[in-house]
Amino acid sequence: MTWVIVSWFFQDFLQAFLSQSILVPEYFLPFLLYRVFSNEYDSKVFIWVAFGGGVLWDLRWTGLPGMSSGLYVAIILLLNWIWSLLPETGRTTLVFVLLIWNGSFMVYLSRIFVWDARGYSFTSGFVVQQLCIIPLLILMGVWRNWKAGQQNG
Amino acid sequence: MNGKELELHWIHGLVAVIISLSMLVTIPHFPFFRSLMEQTSRILAVPEYPAVLLRDSIRKASVWVEDKQETRDEIENLKRENMRLKGLLGMQQARSLMDSMDKKTTGARVTFRPPSSWWAEIRINRGKKDGVKVGLPVLGDGFVIGRVAGVENNSSWVELITSSSMMIPVVVDETRELAVIAGDGKGKAWLMYLPDSSSVSRGMTVSTALVSESLPPGLPIGRVNTDITRVMAGTKAFNVVFGGDLSKLLYVDIYDPGRITE
């Protein structure tokens, strides 16, 4: 839970630092999805953590309370459902990482849709944002593999 | 996750989504919405403070660097413009001098240079009928190389600056010290009668002085060549390099400052 809260504050720090000059990468949602997929904790808790984090984000930055929270929760529901459909053997690290990345991607797409943002500068910002999330995804994949190795023995 | 847990998970999720949608539709219309946003910003300003501080520091540093670069560029531009204007001014002055001299000079061809007095005199193809008078300065490449010593109808004799009997009052342009140029009859001339304390040095330019009877002041002669080579009774003498090449005298100009131009 600590990492989830730290990730929200880190995302907020980045947003304040960059002063809305570029799109801030999503770090909060990937951490939430990681926790939900890992099944170590009660997933309902993370539903409400996502809700709370989204409301706080909206009150601070977007001015549309309920948008980010609804988005986060909906994405968690959707991706957790897809994850639950997969057999144990199909839950590889690659699929794990791709699903988490998909979650962030869906947030970016929805923001493009809501703000009707287009053009080269937005596209290039979008690409930079996606590139910034890659190291986090790699770390998550490596961490998951390491933990799985520890459990197996 | 078992079936019951999954069911609860979905219920909680859907409830959260419904609440979110309701908030999205209703809260922005509530009167307390703005104050809620302000309160949230105020509370979160505390953990965001380091980010704001860092951002402002970087911005100030970047502005400072830009300003410094702009100031440097401005200084360079001003220096370039200053040099250009100085050059233009110098060119205008030089052009004005050239125009003035062009109007007052007559070209002449060297017709004879006696080997026995190679460094003393030359004969030119201009004479009385061309308005040549005794004492007029003769220029080579714009520099004084001698003066008219004798005039006939169609020709004149010019005494060269390297002649042993030639002595011309001159001034060192940089220090404004008066001296005398005296030829040695062997192709050289000496800048003489400068005091021991003189600050004249190599590279300084020499031109005709106001105190000369026959030559108008300000005509360039040449440059100081070497440091002290002769010291005589409280004075020093310097070797002078002429601006005009006395080894290749084929054409000269006779300068008449009193010539009336149209």
Description:
The complex is a heterodimer of chains A (153) and B (262). Chain A is built from six helices and no strands. Chain A has helices at 2-18, 28-38, 43-62, 67-85, 93-115, 120-152. In chain A, helix 1 packs antiparallel against helix 2 and helix 2 packs parallel to helix 4. The longest helix of chain A has 33 residues, at 120-152. Chain B is rod-shaped, with a radius of gyration of 43 Å. The model of chain B has no long low-confidence stretch (mean pLDDT 84). By secondary structure, chain B is an alpha+beta fold. Chain B starts with a helix and ends in a 7-residue tail after the last strand. Chain B has helices at 3-26, 33-104; strands at residues 105-112, 121-124, 137-140, 143-151, 156-160, 167-172, 177-183, 189-195, 205-208, 220-224, 230-232, 235-242, 251-255. The A-B interface holds A 9, 12-14, 16-19, 39, 43-44, 47-48, 50-51, 54-56, 59-60, 63-67, 69-70, 73-74, 76-77, 80, 84 and B 1, 5-6, 8-10, 12-14, 16-17, 19-25, 27-28, 33, 36-37, 40-41, 44, 47-48, 50-52, 54-55.
